[in-house]
Design a protein that fits this description.
The strands form two sheets. Strands 3-4-5 form a three-stranded antiparallel sheet, with no helix packed on it. It contains two helices and five strands, in the order ββαβββα. It starts with a strand and ends in a 17-residue tail after the last helix. With about 110 residues, the protein is α+β, with helices and mostly antiparallel strands.
């Protein structure tokens, strides 16, 4: 079989692909493959950074419901997703371990 000539979509050089060995070669080198991945990641990140931040007013004295912090589109289904900021008190962030209970037997490694 003859080698197939393809154009690299990154650097536009032609390269040969053995049809039996590698049918999925798209890029001429690992360097061009990495550059394509960087470009895709940059485009995805730029698309995710276009969310709208809702204006936040003065804090309410009694928070009864969670208020949205931002809205952006889901990367999978492209439907709007609301982001809510959850804050924890220092006591909740660092829970204490309760005293040993007589009915709990600690596990031993050995």
């Amino acid at each position: 079989m003859l080698a197939e000539l393809r154009d690299c979509p990154i650097c536009w050089t032609q390269f040969q692909v053995n049809p039996q060995a590698a049918t999925r070669h798209t890029y001429c080198s690992p360097r061009c493959k990495a550059e394509a991945a960087r470009r895709r990641r940059r485009e995805r990140d730029d698309a995710n950074d276009t969310f709208e931040t809702e204006p936040t007013g003065p804090p309410s004295p009694e928070p009864t419901a969670l208020t949205p912090t931002a809205t952006r589109n889901c990367p999978h289904c492209d439907k709007p997703v609301t982001i809510v900021a959850l804050l924890a008190t220092p006591e909740a962030a660092r829970p204490t371990i309760p005293a040993a209970s007589p009915d709990v037997i600690p596990m031993r490694r050995g």
